[in-house]
Amino acid sequence: MNTPTYTLRQLVLYFLKLGTIGFGGPVALVGYMHRDLVEKRKWIGEEDYREGLALAQLAPGPLAAQLSIYLGYVHYTVLGATLAGIAFVIPSFIMVLGISYAYVQAGGLPWMQAVFYGIGAAVIGIIVVSSYKLTRKSLGKDWLLWGIFVVLAVTTFILEEENIWLILAAGVIVWVQRRALNSSTKLNSLFLFPVLLQLTQSAWLDEKAAKIGWFFFKAGAFVFGSGLAIVPFLYGGVVKDYQWLNEQQFLDAVAVAMITPGPVVITVGFIGYLVAGFPGACIAALATFLPCYLFTILPAPYFKKYGKHPGIKAFIDGVTAAAVGAIAGAVCVLAKRQFTGLVPVVIALVVAFLLIRFKKLPEPVIILAAALAGLLLF
Fold first, then answer.
1. Would 370 be classed as within a structural domain?
2. Domain tally for the chain?
3. Taking a C-beta distance cutoff of 8 angstroms, is the pair 40, 74 a contact?
4. Helix pair 267-297, 63-106: axis angle to 10 deg
5. How far apart, in whole angstroms, are the C-alpha atoms of residue 189 and residue 186?
């Protein structure tokens, strides 16, 4: 293992800051991590980042949270992974608790729609620029990787969900093309293990807290893709099956996730609060993030040990290309939903231009300006 050029304290402070001001959801957050930790500070190597992105894409759970955990593991193993994950999640969880309390006291927060009108458009501009930089860095001039990127981008946009089997197939295709695999058994067992884990289930006691814990544990353990992929699963459970929330409350929960920094999945804290107060919020958040933590630190040693092997590196390159393509497709899906008129398009274009023109312009300033614009315009 290479000697780290940073301390664990510096890494934890970075993820604490990212969790506090990192807007844009998983697509933007993984881009921020690459920009800050790989390109600017050079704390994490390009190969380590790709391995982390590949693992986060293959295993179930929220993408950005898993990547933060893996990057914490790179030089500081389990302690680093644990502290990085907590630092990344805790700021947005505290914010969500505050919003949840205000929401319950006020009987709803209508201003959320207005704020999200501006922020949502600005977020599109941010993640378009972030995705462009990530794509250019990850794919290089490899025509096969670009082909995989296009296929995943198109299928994700059409289906509006990420297909884990296409992502796995992309890794196999690149491995076959490079003819560098020595042991197919090791590769299959290593990379399919997280996928097979989603098939395991158990039963909990029939109590409200246990129901909440088990439902959100399944949400974290059995849902693949970015944080947005968990929304349909949550809707089916909390609105349709258990009827814990009505339609408007669920839409407000999604809005809360989008207007707060950090991982989108933190919306589970808001839902848990509405269902069972502060204990419900804590149970929901812990149950959702526990699987992604385990699915990251358990395979991590194997990724670090075998990740530099030519065959596995080829597989990771294919999965990374697929992941970046899926991210690009997700951007298009978000844009389709957000661009309901000319104003959001203009806001997104202006934000993208400003980020390209002024490279040091802080995203929180853009988000704040967009929020104010939303309140004035909507």
1. yes
2. 1
3. no
4. 160
5. 5
* Poorest-pLDDT segment among 76-80, 153-157, 204-208, 367-371: 204-208
Instruction: Dump pLDDT digits (tens) for 232-266.
Output: 678 778 888 888 988 778 877 877 776 778 777 88
Q: How confident is the model at residue 54 (pLDDT cuts 50, 70, 90)?
A: confident
* Distance from C-alpha of 372 to C-alpha of 378, rounded to nearest angstrom: 10
Indicate the DSSP class of residue 44. S
Per-range mean pLDDT, top range of 88-97, 164-173, 327-336: 88-97
Does residue 214 form part of some domain?
no
Name the residue with tokens 């207005």.
114
Amino acid at 45: G
Beta carbons within 10 angstroms of residue 10's beta carbon: 12
CA–CA dist 9, 112 (Å, integer): 35
- Give the integer Cα–Cα distance in Å for 230 and 292: 13
- pTM for this model (two decimals): 0.69
| Residue 331 DSSP SS3 | helix
180 has a pLDDT exceeding 70:
no
DSSP string, 91-138: HHHHHHHHHHHHHHHHT--THHHHHHHHHHHHHHHHHHHHHHHHHHHH
| Cα–Cα dist 301/136, whole Å | 28
Residues 320, 307 contacting (CB under 8 angstroms) = no
Asked if residue 222 belongs to a domain, the reply is: no
- Quick check: 284 pLDDT over 60? yes
Domain encompassing residue 330: 8-199+294-377
Per-residue pLDDT of 312-362, as tens digits, reads: 778 878 877 887 787 788 778 767 777 777 888 888 899 889 888 887 777
Give the up-direction half-sphere exposure of residue 120: CA atoms within 13 A in the CB hemisphere.
Answer: 26
Sequence-ordered alpha helix ranges (H) in the chain: 8-21, 25-33, 46-58, 63-106, 111-139, 143-159, 164-178, 184-197, 208-221, 230-234, 247-259, 267-297, 300-306, 310-338, 342-357, 363-377
In a domain, 59, yes or no: yes
Distances (CA, A) of 336 to 44, 108, 302, 330: 34, 27, 39, 10
Residue at token pair 């980020």: 355
Type of residue numbered 234:
L
